[in-house]
Design a protein that fits this description.
The protein is mainly α and 510 residues long. It is built from 23 helices and no strands. Mean pLDDT is 79; it is low at 153-158 and 252-259. It comes from Microbacterium thalassium.
């Protein structure tokens, strides 16, 4: 730990600032936890269980996201000839001697003080604290070993970005939901149910154990058993990883050439993975794709103007832009083959299966659309004011987005039309000899709306008459969107394989 300060002045400064911020965060966290002694037991349970679950999850995700070298990697001890069990045990013990665990121990002791104030005995408090710390240490050991063993050759900025994106997709909607709840001095019902569920999971069980004992809850025994079972499972996995590290030969360094290939290093080594990686490069670097993506928020926001001018209440109008954005996002790939220009010959001449082409090309828009909608839907519902509408709006967006993707997979191989060439302005459109482009665009839009009509109808009923129809809208949207998405990829794959020569002729002539 002292060696972490070695290096240049800038490195030492960054480490010092980070340590200072960590100490300040721990002090603030301890003060906040100790203040719960005067709060209601339900409030203390909610804060400690949710906070402990988040910290435990962080110990699992941090090694995968950061990718820092592990100084206690079992492979560093191969030459010492230590027994597997002894080495595994000592590395776990050494895992307790770290700054993150020291900070967590301080917070855990503060939480234990709160449970003691509510009547929990010394034994449940100590047991819960030890189980929580041991769970975090084992998770960190296991995830560090997995990251160094399986992700070392494929880690890149793109892979870390995907982890961060996944966390944001989960955290932001949850944060919006919690911020919208009306506490009124008590724990809302929705939050209490979430805490009860977390208390019976490996993430929250050790932190909830002492509190459940203080409440006299029958779930205390379950929480203890879940914590013990989780530790046993993690211990078995850790033992296997140490054995594998000591008995497996390192892969040759020649295989690590993939490390600098960007998205190609992240994507699977399959035809579909290669197409997805190439499509991701296009979507994030080609100005034509970027322009289409940037227009969507503006177009969705404009849809609010006519209803507001007509006098529609604002709480209804705020629900309109997100479904339009979902429809536009699903519509974007309706002519993706035309943007390939002459690069399309690689797919056709290489004998790529239609399924690999169709699905690989949809990966970029899925990586863009799903997180964007996951953030926009709860924000729109929070502005609307009725969280019961969340399933309905989700169902409508799923139906529009995935059905439009399904129809786009068919449209792009049946009726492609000329677009601006690579390097040209996204707003410079070439002359077309026929109306096929207009028909293709209108068909994808219309068909997606028609397929989504049941979800739209149930959403309208939930908005105006019976809120229970919100779940009907959700299921109608999921079924319609999923079915059209699967059918669209299947039909598009067949057409792609049968019209390969015509698609090459189209690409060469435009």
């Amino acid at each position: 730990m002292i060696g972490a300060l070695r290096g240049g002045a800038s490195h030492a400064t960054r480490i010092t600032i980070g340590m200072t911020l960590l100490v300040m965060a721990v002090i603030g966290g301890c003060w906040a936890l100790l203040s719960l002694r005067d709060a209601a037991p339900a409030v203390a349970m909610s804060v400690i269980v949710m906070g402990g679950s988040a910290v435990t999850l962080g110990f699992a995700l941090a090694p995968l996201i950061v990718g820092a070298a592990d100084p206690l990697d079992p492979r560093r001890f191969v030459l010492l000839g230590m027994p597997v069990r002894s080495l595994a045990f000592m590395l776990v013990v050494a895992g307790f001697i770290s700054i993150p665990i020291a900070a967590l121990t301080t917070l855990a002791v503060s939480a234990g003080t709160v449970w003691s104030a509510f009547g929990a005995g010394a034994m449940p408090v100590i047991t819960g604290t030890v189980l929580g710390l041991l769970t975090c240490v084992l998770l960190a050991r296991v995830c560090m070993s997995l990251a160094s063993t399986f992700l070392n050759e494929r880690r890149s900025r793109e892979l870390s970005g995907l982890f961060v994106l996944a966390v944001v997709v989960v955290v932001v909607p949850v944060g919006v939901f919690l911020a919208s709840l009306e506490w009124g001095g008590a724990v809302p019902t929705q939050l209490a149910e979430a805490v009860d569920a977390l208390a019976l999971t490996p993430l929250g069980a050790p932190w909830a154990y002492a509190g459940l004992v203080a409440e006299g809850s029958a779930n205390a025994t379950r929480s203890l058993l879940i914590s013990l079972a989780s530790i046993v499972a993690l211990g078995a996995i850790w033992l296997w990883l140490v054995h594998r590290a000591l008995t497996t030969t390192e892969r040759p360094a020649a295989n690590r050439e993939r490390a600098g290939l960007g998205w190609f290093a992240v994507a699977p080594g399959t035809p579909g993975g290669a197409i997805a990686a190439r499509s991701l490069l296009y979507w994030f670097r080609d100005r034509r794709y970027v322009a289409n993506i940037l227009i969507i928020p503006l177009a969705a926001a404009v849809t609010m103007v006519p209803p507001l001018v007509a006098g529609m209440p604002l709480e209804y109008v705020v629900l309109i832009p997100v479904p339009f954005a979902a429809l536009f996002l699903g519509w974007l790939p309706h002519n993706d083959l035309a943007y390939d220009s002459t690069a399309l010959w690689m797919h056709v001449s290489g004998g790529i299966r239609g399924f690999s082409d169709r699905l690989g090309r949809l990966v970029p828009i899925l990586l863009i659309g799903v997180p964007l909608l996951a953030l926009a839907i709860p924000l729109a519902v929070s502005q609307h004011g009725r969280w019961a509408m969340l399933p309905a709006l989700t169902g409508v967006c799923v139906a529009l987005f995935f059905s439009a993707l399904g129809f786009s997979s068919i449209s792009s191989v049946i009726a492609p039309y000329a677009v601006s060439r690579p390097g040209e302005s996204a707003f410079q459109q070439p002359q077309r000899t026929g109306p096929s482009g207009v028909f293709a665009q209108a068909l994808v839009f219309t068909a997606a709306v028609v397929v989504s009509a049941p979800a739209l109808w149930f959403t309208w009923l939930a908005l105006t008459e019976d809120i229970d129809q919100a779940m009907s809208a959700l299921w109608a949207g999921v079924i319609a969107g999923g079915a059209v998405f699967a059918i669209g990829i299947a039909l598009g794959s067949i057409v792609f394989e049968r019209r390969g020569d015509r698609l090459m002729e189209f690409a060469e002539s435009t």
